[in-house]
Amino acid sequence: IYEFHLRITSFQTIRKASKAFLFHFFVGFFCLLIFFIMAS
């Protein structure tokens, strides 16, 4: 039971990390897009 719980928590941690990574990726991409629009 404990091992199963540990697996679930690690899965949730990975999901949170991937969500945070996607969020930062989109924010960075959006900032780059605005920068290129301003520069041109």
What's a concise summary of this model?
The chain crosses the membrane at residues 21-39. Helices cover 95% and strands 0% of the residues.
Largest sheet: none
> How many helices?
1
User: Termini, distance in Å?
Assistant: 59 Å
Order of helices and strands: H
What is the helix fraction of residues, given as a range? over 70%
Spans with pLDDT under 50 lasting ≥5 residues? Answer: none
Beta percentage is under 5%
Count all strands and give the number: 0
Q: What is the average of the pLDDT values?
A: 90
Looking at the structure, what is the overall shape?
rod-shaped
Q: State the secondary-structure class.
A: mainly alpha
Number of domains: 1
Question: What's the Cα radius of gyration?
Answer: 17 Å
Structural write-up:
Helix content is 95%, strand content 0%. The protein contains one helix and no strands. It has one helix at 2-39. The mean pLDDT is 90. With 40 residues, it is mostly helical. It has one domain. The radius of gyration is 17 Å and the shape is rod-shaped.
What attributes does this structure have?
single chain; 40 residues; mainly alpha; 95% helix; rod-shaped
Write the layout of secondary structure elements.
Blueprint: H1 2-39
Transmembrane segments: 21-39
Keywords: Membrane, Transmembrane, Transmembrane helix
